[in-house]
């Protein structure tokens, strides 16, 4: 079976003159003009009218299914909501791709619903958050949480196409922009030193500008390069291993301890924030093993500061980390297969991280965090926000 | 991606000397000796002790998850039960295949649970009913019902291997044996005239004997040939189209109207009984189109009588059939793609069955059924029984 899916950067996606969204998965010639649009509640609030105008202008009958998508609603109940709306819409099995518009939670939920519906129906992803554009929105994985286990239920079900329009970032909250930069940072740390240098130099400004240029729509040249490198790096890793037959995955960097932290802190830590704490932890472990020099650790901390990403959180305790590692070992079939950075821009896998290494790194992160803030600041913003992030 | 799965007939499966079940999916050499066994409640009642003895004798640590599997319990809640038991067991992701022991409902539910768990974990099917051995147990499809829609949610997730031991049929109720023969009859009607002749001659006796030989374990020569031909015919159709990219499927014969009837009559009609009514209906439609001669119709009725399978049920009304066809059209992407028999042992696809054809065939079946029984007998047994059928 050959599977292909596309990731297409398409600025001005909601401009009626742009056919990308209307034509996505429509076949040649297009068979029917009906679309079910599943959209995050925040995104619908901001973009619902434009979405309707777009489909009307293109002569496409459509209905909305509005989902309040956030990490706590990343459940089978949300999947059922989408499935019921597919039934009400009377969706044909293969020729009316569902359009998913929202952040990573929304596209993961719609991905699973379409994967299960009649054992597989097509869908199109329109990620509206930075984390969606560089991570959740461009892979093949779908998933929901189950009994406090992160993504315990899911499938591999790539969308026909992921349409990326950076203009959506203009209305994204700063915190959700930073959240996405954690996944950009991951790609930089494991395989792209130049990307790391870009983040070190421009990270803070890119966040303030939400990757939008001062002088009009689209992205500025640096923002464009950062996005392209992050997406390209991710796809390079995913493409040969879509079904994860290979459990040695570089892109699991930052994702060994973070699922347990994220679930434990729910809803306080966003996904990227938990990933950032995980990366800080494993940076220190790698440092103590002589894999990352003191200078490189300092450089990584500098970039994390540029991006205002946390390095510690109160749920990050030796006990939680030990439990997290146990579950990660089950997930990696009896082995740790833990990606550790080697210098910056490179990584390796190890199988022998001990509880005492975890405890030591954890204690150091806590001290660093206290020293940095001087006020007991946890390193993560504490406001709970909706998953779409378009406040 | 290449996918392979095996169907293996292995008599004496629970004999500790038979390594088939212990070694299924264990890898070479076997990695660990732990198994989660998900088993239908009726089957556990009859075979639980032997299953335990088997795994103990082979030195395999194991736990049972007992599921009360029947059509009304073919839901996501049952899937969640299995998922929770996998979590409690601490299942490794790829090296501890779940063992599913039961009828089609049980293997469909476990198939979906393992498909979703960590986005895919391996499993082994041990079908204990005839319908499991010739149909549900040997395909790649998993599924549960949702809001009264048959198999609305599911996936394609073949087991590593399906182990078939006809001895399980010795304790199956007669009604469940007949239920399985409906799927055998389907294969005969669409592609195997010789199999139909075997059913015409031996059907009644094979049911009475539960496909067991008078003189010991295993199957007699005719029973063995019937099983082999049914399984072989099914696999021939499934194998080139595992993911149903092709929606023209001969094995959909009997499955165009039956899902709606089965759901409407729940729990009164077993799956095979609904399939039988569907086949009677489409036999008449084909006859009126000149595709099946009067003599062949008579022959088909004779075989259905041999197998004591129903040709009508009170839920079979023109209105329900019209709604069923509407949903089938959505399932087949805007076309009827309705398999109709051509003579016996062959079939074609049509796209233009009208409501009046449905109504006419329906009325005739009702009359035939009344004439046959003289007592208003519905043609289907009315007792509701557990899905495993091992009463």
Q: Helicity range of the residues of chain A? A: 40-55%
Coarse structural class of chain A: alpha/beta
Unreliably modeled segments of chain A: 375-387
Mean pLDDT of chain A: 92
Sheet with most strands of chain A:
6 strands, parallel
The tally of helices of chain A reads 13
What is the overall silhouette of chain A? globular
Order of helices and strands of chain A: EHEHEHEHEHEEEHHHHHHHEEH
First-last Cα distance of chain A: 42 Å
Structural account:
The structure is a homodimer. Chain A is of the alpha/beta class. Chain A is about 45% helix and about 15% strand. Chain A is built from 13 helices and 10 strands. The first copy, chain A, has helices spanning about 20-25, 40-55, 75-90, 105-115, 130-135, 175-190, 195-210, 220-240, 260-265, 270-290, 295-305, 320-330, 355-375; strands spanning about 5-10, 35-40, 60-65, 100, 125, 140-145, 150-155, 160-165, 340, 345-350. Chain A has a 6-stranded parallel sheet, with helices on both faces. In chain A, strands 6-7 form a two-stranded antiparallel sheet. In chain A, strands 9-10 form a two-stranded antiparallel sheet. In chain A, strand 9 and strand 10 form a beta hairpin. Chains A and B meet through helix 3, strand 6 and strand 7 of A and helix 3, strand 6 and strand 7 of B.
């Amino acid at each position: 079976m050959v599977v292909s899916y596309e990731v297409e950067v398409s600025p001005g996606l909601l401009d009626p003159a742009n056919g990308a969204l209307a034509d996505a998965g429509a076949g040649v010639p297009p068979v029917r003009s009906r679309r079910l649009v599943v959209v995050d509640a925040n995104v619908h609030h901001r973009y619902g009218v434009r979405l309707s105008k777009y489909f009307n202008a293109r002569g496409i009958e459509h209905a909305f299914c509005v989902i309040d998508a956030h990490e706590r609603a990343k459940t089978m109940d949300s999947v059922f909501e989408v499935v019921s709306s597919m039934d009400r819409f009377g969706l044909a099995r293969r020729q009316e791709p569902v359009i998913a518009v929202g952040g990573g939670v929304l596209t993961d939920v719609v991905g699973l619903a379409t994967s299960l519906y009649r054992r597989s129906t097509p869908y199109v992803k329109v990620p509206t958050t930075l984390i969606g554009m560089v991570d959740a929105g461009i892979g093949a994985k779908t998933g929901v949480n189950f009994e406090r286990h992160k993504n315990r239920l899911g499938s591999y079900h790539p969308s026909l196409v992921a349409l990326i329009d950076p203009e959506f970032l203009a209305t994204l909250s700063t915190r959700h922009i930073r959240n996405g930069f954690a996944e950009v940072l991951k790609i930089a740390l494991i395989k792209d030193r130049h990307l790391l240098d870009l983040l070190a130099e421009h990270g803070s400004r890119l966040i303030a500008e939400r990757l939008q240029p001062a002088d009009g729509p689209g992205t500025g040249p640096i923002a464009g390069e950062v996005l392209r490198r992050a997406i390209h790096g991710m796809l390079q890793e995913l493409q040969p291993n879509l079904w994860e037959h290979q459990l040695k995955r570089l892109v699991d960097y930052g994702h060994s301890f973070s699922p347990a932290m994220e679930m434990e802190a729910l809803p306080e830590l966003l996904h990227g924030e938990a990933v950032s704490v995980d990366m800080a932890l494993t940076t220190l472990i790698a440092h103590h093993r002589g894999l990352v020099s003191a200078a490189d650790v300092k450089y990584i901390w500098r970039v994390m500061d540029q991006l205002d990403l946390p390095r510690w959180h109160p749920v990050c305790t030796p006990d939680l980390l030990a439990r997290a590692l146990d579950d990660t070992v089950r997930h990696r079939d009896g082995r740790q297969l833990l990606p550790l950075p080697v210098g910056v821009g490179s990584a390796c896998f190890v199988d022998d991280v001990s509880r005492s290494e975890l405890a030591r790194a954890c204690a150091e992160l806590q001290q660093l965090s206290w020293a940095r803030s001087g006020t007991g600041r946890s390193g993560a913003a504490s406001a709970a926000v909706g998953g779409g992030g378009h406040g």
